[in-house]
Design brief:
Strand content: under 5%
Number of strands: 5
Strand order of the largest sheet: 1-2-3
Distance between the termini: 27 Å
Radius of gyration: 23 Å
Order of helices and strands: HHHHHHHHHHHHEEEHHHHHHHHEEH
Number of helices: 21
Number of domains: 3
């Protein structure tokens, strides 16, 4: 591992071995919280390892101990919790928590897992000549370790891409709307909505890494990607609408490293990272011999694909596509596996969403001040400032207005501000967590 270590090798092994799946009603419980903290530590260590090009010990442990399927199951479980249980909690009239951070940790759990999966798929090396062979081999290893759960992961990524396409044209809340007065639960809902966009972008990256292994994927997975979900056409839609780009005040902005950035005129013709992920996914799905043999070129598919620019790598394919006759939809009888996690969880919990929400209201999301202080101490131990600064892609942002920040909260040292005025305005929301974090630090 790198010079800055969060976990010792033996400690990382113990944490990975201990990963397990939780029932929906257990989310936010003491055991679940401990695993969430462990996942965050593994996540940060994996990012540190990838940043300094020290190999992938976290990835190797997850593959060796067969924990990739566990991560996929936990990812889909918290996705379902957010869709089915979280809205019920928000509607309960008798639920007015004095601190929403325990709920925020569950909401954030999905982002933690998809970020860890993206990191273990990614292998950063210094020389491009060996990058392709190395990353393809490791991506295949992760896909094989996922076993039949790769089908569930493909379905998950497809759901997130649908959200990205649906988001096009909806616009983003203005700064005034984002920071206007609201109840703690309303504020949490806004944070969850903003987080969903970033999660979807991570899912796009994970999907791209899966397509790197397209020639080695099972027939069921390939059929799911090409026939059931028609991913090439969905990717064309994403390129066409580019939900990670927008015009603000007449200036082009692109979403990168967690926030919107204005693009200089000289940089506007360059391909950004997210567009690049879509193009690589398309190359993999359209130019692979295995995929070409199984992709049905109907008139709709042909029309969608011919919208693509005639770039060099796709030039031959598009020229051929323009001349070939379209094919009727195939009606072959194919025996294939289907993803089972979402359907199983929905079947096990159908009709219980209200009961789960009320159970969590009483036993999970209503902690005492003493419990919150202990939790704050564990958060402080998990989110070490030296590690967070080492893995941050750029300078910190103001917690109130999102501008570049240079001042840290003097009490808890965890939150950044650009000026005193923003800190004062944000204190009503930050104060309770700040006091608890500071008490946790003094307790250590």
């Amino acid at each position: 591992m790198g010079d800055l270590e969060l976990l010792l090798p033996g400690e990382a092994d113990v944490l990975v071995r201990g990963l397990r799946s939780f029932q929906l009603r257990e989310m936010g419980s003491e055991g679940w919280n401990k695993q969430h903290e462990n996942l965050e530590k593994l996540n940060m260590q994996a990012i540190l390892d990838a940043t300094v090009s020290q190999g992938e010990p976290i990835q190797e442990l997850l593959v060796t101990h067969g924990k990739i399927p566990t991560l996929v199951e936990e990812l889909i479980a918290v996705e379902m919790w957010k869709q089915k249980v979280f809205p019920v909690l928000c509607r309960l009239e008798d639920f007015k928590p004095h601190n929403t951070f325990p709920i925020y940790m569950v909401v954030h759990h999905e982002a933690s897992i998809i970020n860890l999966l993206e990191t273990v798929f990614f292998h950063k090396v210094k020389h491009y000549s060996c990058q392709e062979a190395t990353s393809l081999g490791q991506n295949l290893e992760v896909c094989e370790s996922a076993d039949d759960k790769v089908l569930d992961l493909v379905d998950y990524c497809h759901r997130k891409l649908i959200l990205l396409v649906a988001r096009t044209g909806c616009g983003d809340p203005s700064e005034e709307e984002r920071f206007q007065d609201s109840t703690p639960m309303q504020e949490l809902q806004k944070q969850a909505e903003m987080m969903e966009f970033e999660i979807s972008l991570k899912a796009l990256s994970v999907l791209r890494y899966i397509t790197d292994c397209v020639d080695s994927l099972s027939l069921s997975t390939l059929n799911r990607m090409l026939s059931t979900h028609n991913l090439p056409c969905l990717l064309v839609e994403l390129l066409e609408h580019s939900p990670w780009s927008r015009r603000e005040g007449g200036k082009l902005q692109q979403f990168e490293n967690g926030h919107w950035q204005t693009v200089a005129p000289s940089e506007q013709q360059r391909l950004n990272k997210l567009d690049g992920q879509v193009w690589i996914s398309l190359y993999n799905l359209l130019l692979s011999p295995e995929a070409q043999a199984r992709y049905c070129l109907t008139s709709f598919v042909k029309g969608q694909l011919l919208k693509l620019p005639n770039l060099a790598d796709l030039k031959g394919f598009l020229a051929h596509l323009a001349l070939v006759e379209t094919q009727p939809p195939k009606k072959d009888l194919v025996l294939e596996q289907i993803p089972e996690i979402w359907d199983r969880l929905e079947r096990e919990n159908k009709g219980k969403w209200q009961a789960i929400a009320k159970h969590q209201l009483q036993h999970v999301f209503n902690p005492s001040d003493q419990d919150l202080r202990l939790q704050a101490q564990r958060w402080a131990e998990t989110y070490r400032l030296d590690v967070l600064e080492a893995i941050a892609p750029e300078r910190p942002r103001c917690a109130y207005c999102n501008a570049e920040a240079s001042k840290r909260c003097s009490r808890c040292q965890n939150v950044w501000y650009c000026c005193r005025e923003c800190q004062v305005k944000h204190w009503e929301k930050h104060g309770k967590t700040c006091v608890l974090a500071a008490q946790g630090d003094r307790a250590k």
